[in-house]
Design goal:
- The protein is mainly alpha-helical and 428 residues long.
- The chain has 15 helices and 2 strands.
- It is globular, with a radius of gyration of 21 Å.
- It starts with a helix and ends in a 15-residue tail after the last helix.
- The model is unreliable at 54-58, 63-68, 204-213 and 416-428 (pLDDT under 50).
Length: 428
């Protein structure tokens, strides 16, 4: 139980750090007229062609397709991006976890959902690189060793997804849904337990955790492993700096790249806790390295593994980017007028909704693959219930946040421009 609790804390801190990155990148785009004009230039032709029909491609076996599908799916992608942005901005974690499941729930094939989400993350990272102020804390050697591993990991993860899809699209759907069901179920149930404990103890503090402020026992043990080449880092924070094997860092990168390519995420939700808790890297150096790795990891996963094979729908990616930019600002502002205990509750419920949605699809996939023998009406009903629960929960959350925003817009108008919640406390 203690091990599971530690893993949950590990992933929770990571998802908070990734949400902080997402928030800063989004605000960097929104505050730049030049970047907004670039986004508008990208959106105009896509908006025009999105009103044309491209045939039955998203739901078919053939993944190769043009950069548009239909008006409805384009509007749905904006709504998905909006909801994910609201969750990220308001809760401070978990928004990125619902994008791929939401796309799949909307009828997009799993491999297309993964590729499109990765491209959306990559596009956002490229447009928001003005966050480079923190890149001064990057340890170049540490970053290079990690990126060698994460690059290899993206190729492994992409190969797994493409091989499963080529062998049997249903098997690909089952695999991606299973990965998400396990991760979201684990995070969701522990988050729910945390919420219930906080409510019982009348703890109404904010929902955002803090990073570790010292070396863990694991980090000390890892730094004692002397496998060449040894990398020195954090010279500005520790006299003489600390040392770690480049091989271990690269192996960590493989894990991050693998998860990024399989799940369609940037990998930041694993990188931050891995660097701080497992490698013993200071938070300041970790933040800079994390920003750098997301750009390259998402790019390597999105372009060579998915885009060139036709597994990216650019219309959906741009729609999600547009929606998330709006949602993340509204969500971040709303944190000023809602109680922390409510945010904790919505975090747990939104993650559990994603879990229910993906878990509800598993019986149908197993029946279609002839691994289970259950009547089709039963498995179809289970899947439909999972979809309804997911969309009702996400829609209710979105309407609640937007309602709170509109209700308090007068008070928020006079607030300070600095709207980002403090998700990661930097070490001295």
């Amino acid at each position: 139980m203690n091990v599971a609790r530690r893993v949950y804390e590990f992933l929770k801190v990571g998802s908070q750090a990734h949400a902080q990155w997402d928030l800063e990148v989004s605000m960097s785009i929104l505050k730049s007229k030049k970047k907004l004009l670039i986004l508008l230039a990208l959106m105009l032709p896509i908006c025009v062609v999105s009103f044309l029909e491209a045939g039955d491609m998203i739901g078919s076996k053939t993944a190769y397709a043009p950069a548009f599908y239909s008006t409805n799916i384009f509007l749905i992608s904006i709504a998905i991006g909006l909801c994910a942005g609201l969750i990220t901005g308001c809760i401070g974690a978990g928004g990125g976890f619902v994008i791929t499941p939401a796309l799949m729930a909307a009828g997009v094939k799993g491999i297309l959902a993964v590729g499109t989400d990765l491209f959306h993350i990559f596009a956002k990272a490229i447009m928001g690189t003005a966050v480079h102020k923190k890149l001064g804390n990057v340890s170049v050697k540490l970053a290079m060793a990690f990126l060698v591993g994460s690059g290899a990991g993206t190729f492994i993860g992409g190969y797994i997804n493409k091989s499963l899809y080529d062998y049997d699209p249903l098997l690909s759907e089952l695999f991606i849904s299973l990965v998400y069901a396990v991760l979201l179920g684990f995070l969701g149930f522990y988050a729910l337990i945390d919420f219930l404990k906080a409510r019982k103890s009348n703890d109404t503090g904010d929902a955002h955790g803090s990073s570790s402020t010292g070396m863990t026992g694991l980090a000390v043990a890892v730094q004692k492993v002397k496998i060449a080449p040894m990398i020195t880092f954090d010279e500005d924070f520790v006299p003489g700096g600390r040392k770690i094997s480049g091989v271990i860092v690269a192996l960590g990168g493989i894990v991050v790249g693998l998860m990024a390519a399989i799940m369609g995420v940037g990998g930041g939700f694993i990188t931050f806790p891995m660097f701080v808790y497992a490698f013993g890297v200071s938070s300041m150096t970790t933040v800079g390295t994390d920003i750098l790795q997301i750009i390259f990891t998402a790019g390597l996963a999105a372009i060579p593994q998915y885009a060139i094979y036709g597994y990216v729908f650019y219309t959906l990616a741009m729609g999600m980017l547009l929606g998330s930019l709006i949602g993340i600002q509204v969500g971040a502002l709303t944190t000023k007028v809602v109680k922390g205990i409510h945010i904790r509750g919505f975090y747990a419920v939104s993650i559990l909704a994603g879990f229910i949605n993906r878990a509800a699809t598993l019986p149908k996939k197993l029946v279609e693959l002839e691994y289970l023998n259950i009547s089709k009406p039963v498995v179809n009903t289970i899947e439909s219930v999972g979809n309804v629960v997911f969309w009702v929960v996400v829609s209710f959350f979105a309407l609640w946040v937007i309602g709170m925003f509109v209700k308090n817009i007068g008070n928020l108008r006079g607030e300070d421009e600095s709207i980002a919640p403090v998700l990661v406390k930097e070490e001295a």
